[in-house]
């Protein structure tokens, strides 16, 4: 997968290509897999490339990609969040409930962002200042949010949402709005991670917390910041999720946290922190949506979806570990 | 010093437990009946069984998020082996338990051979094993087990629910192994400082392999008992079970950072959790409400543990 970088006889363009591959290996691999998958499935069943199906794949799963951006930052900083699925469920329910009760649409859209940031600020404080490992805090949050949501709403459907509320159903030049959100947020986040001070800080903390501390980075404050940004993206994801159908089921979307984490990890975020990009995680979210759709179009039972997901995480993680070992 | 601090945590738990029991007994006269107590014991047996190897796992500084999925996979395969492949039920039961062991061994190999952190390795296998269970079962359930099979989960031996004998026996065995053997000392050493343990000539990889394989094996056993208790197999069995198990262990005073913890503490944590669940149920809180409480208790227990140990350090 990686090219022999050190060979001196390589000509300049080849060497440049090799460097690009080395730097963006995972993203390119995921992109190549998407292309191959689309080609193969389209040959088996041409309807795979129909407008409706492409819209389902890209627009219907854009919220996963948006949530994966925040998750990517969290994992790069050396933490994890297993509660994001429950959080999105709670935020979507809040958004829908406000809309049904006649609050101004803008408040219905902004409330999930604010609540998401607030909840994750709390999580961040527990992780950074109280020093409870993020897996334990978010495992606890998962059950608090999930249990709280189900006992508050009994999983009821939220109907009669006002038409203006349906952000995810708006189209511009025929393209549904979630795709704009996904693309724009990915590009902005990628640029911000690469060029802003705080972006570099996140990489530094994940790469080596001790070195980051010695370099004068306020780790605790930055970790809380990372979780708050993650809450912001979860809020946007929740609004996209809440507004894409005519009804909202006020439960936690099944397996969502795992899908989001898979997208980040498969997209090239190192599980040990310190490396990865949001472009990779968005590509992986698309790949995963395409796999789910491909299973249906090739008549494979969708019940295998999660096994495929698990295998993908495992394969990527093992490849990551093997690459690290080779580099050492 | 360490012995004293262990005793202190367990004494606190015991006092909390007594208080909880007194409150419950006063609130409802149905709580302190033999029937209810035995029934509560039956309900906590599966989580209790899983909490024993989980104590070892967390003492080494690791975590096993996949136990719920292994539990589901073993349960499904029990049904598939017996109903689908026509294997005699006793053999199918053994095979289902062994599948759990193999799944656990898989976890251990991923961690020791590829240096994958336990959190990520078992997060991946959480998806993989649950996915296999869903894929193999295609959401079909298996019912119609013979009468004798229900002895395991619904029957009694000498007046006690059958599964409680398993729990008692294995708890004593686990306490002995962790507290009295070289293997137990190795487990603590790995959790306290893995690198130091390796340089001291301890076989870290083998110890971890045994612990994670046992965790899977016990998950398989708990699954068979669970199927016997509820008389059916479904692929979503044991979803979220890891939360209960980890909470019981952490509540029992095992440090999430490794190196500290006892089986007695875990058992106390387990009983306290079951008492809280049952108390909430009697107070009219539904099942979903109780998982909120478990989540809060999990975080609070670690918070408290952090504060106490920090005081000790200072």
**Low-pLDDT windows of residues of chain A:** 1-8
Number of helix segments of chain A?
13
Low-confidence stretches of chain B: none
The first-to-last residue Cα distance of chain B is 15 Å
Helix fraction of chain B, binned, reads: over 70%
Query: Biggest sheet of chain A: strands side by side, in what order?
Result: 1-4
Q: What is the CA-atom radius of gyration of chain B, in angstroms?
A: 19 Å
Characterize the quaternary organization of these chains.
Answer: heterodimer
Give the H and E element order of chain B: HHHHHHEEHHHHHHH
Q: Whole-number average pLDDT of chain A?
A: 80
SS-based class of chain A: mainly alpha
Q: Helix segment count of chain B?
A: 13
What's the CATH topology name of chain A?
Answer: ABC transporter involved in vitamin B12 uptake, BtuC
Distance between the termini of chain A: 18 Å
The percent range for strand residues of chain A is: under 5%
Write a concise keyword list for the protein shown above.
heterodimer, A: 328 residues, mainly alpha, ABC transporter involved in vitamin B12 uptake, BtuC, two-stranded antiparallel ribbon, 13 helices, 4 strands, disordered N terminus, B: mainly alpha, 77% helix, globular
Question: In words, what does this structure look like?
Answer:
- The complex is a heterodimer of chains A (328) and B (314).
- In chain A, helix 4 packs parallel to helix 6 and helix 5 packs antiparallel against helix 10.
- In chain A, 70% of the residues lie in helices and 2% in strands.
- With 328 residues, chain A is an all-alpha fold.
- Chain A has one domain: ABC transporter involved in vitamin B12 uptake, BtuC, CATH 1.10.3470.
- In chain A, the strands form two sheets. Chain A has a two-stranded antiparallel sheet. In chain A, strands 2-3 form a two-stranded antiparallel ribbon.
- The N terminus of chain A is likely disordered.
- By secondary structure, chain B is mainly alpha-helical.
- Chain B has a domain of 206 residues.
- Helices cover 77% and strands 1% of the residues of chain B.
- Chain B has 13 helices and two strands, in the order H-H-H-H-H-H-E-E-H-H-H-H-H-H-H.
- Chain B has a two-stranded antiparallel ribbon with strand order 1-2.
- In chain B, helix 2 packs parallel to helix 7.
- The longest helix of chain B is centred in the C-terminal third of the chain and has 27 residues.
- The interface between A and B is large, with 45 and 47 residues.
